[in-house]
Amino acid sequence: MSSVIVDQRAEATKYIKDKKINKLFDILGAQLARQKPEDPNEFLLNELKRISELKEKNQPVSLFAERDIEIMFSIFDLTNRGYVDQTQYLKALTAVGVDSPSLPVPKGDKINKDEFISHIYAEVVKDAF
């Protein structure tokens, strides 16, 4: 009997991973916390519809949009130099939940805004829901 329970648990875990259910919950939870709607149930239904429409168009659904990453660049580039160094870039990746980048990290100590946005956005949407 215990092997049946273990098999069901393994099946459920695989399903959650394959369907990226945790990502979906992360996105929905973050949107709820950010927007604090009066009617959370209605809000969640609308968000699920929006996500479904994006998925139908093969568009990524993630916690961060390109605009969010653009704003992040300005936070890391406090002196308005127009670039960040590799350490700042790696900290930005960590801030968006990417602890181990799977894409090549830009070389050099002058990562400009466009490169920063495109690389970080690519990491974010790589595992998007």
Which characteristics define this entry?
129 residues, mainly alpha, two-stranded antiparallel ribbon, 3% strand
Summarize the structure.
With 129 residues, this protein is mostly helical. It contains six helices and two strands. Helix content is 65%, strand content 3%.
Would you mind describing this structure in some detail?
The protein has six helices and two strands; from the N terminus they run H-H-H-H-E-H-E-H. By secondary structure, it is mainly α. A two-stranded antiparallel sheet has the order 1-2. Helix 4 packs across helix 6. The chain is globular and about 55 Å long.
What general outline do the C-alpha atoms trace? globular
Give the helix level as a range of percent. 55-70%
Structural class of the secondary structure composition? Answer: mainly alpha
Gyration radius, in Å: 18 Å
Instruction: Tell me the total number of β-strands.
Output: 2
Task: List strands and helices in order, with pairings.
Blueprint: H1 2-18, H2 21-35, H3 40-56, H4 66-76, E1 83-84, H5 86-95, E2 111-112, H6 113-126
Antiparallel strand pairs: 1-2
Helix pairs in contact: 4-6
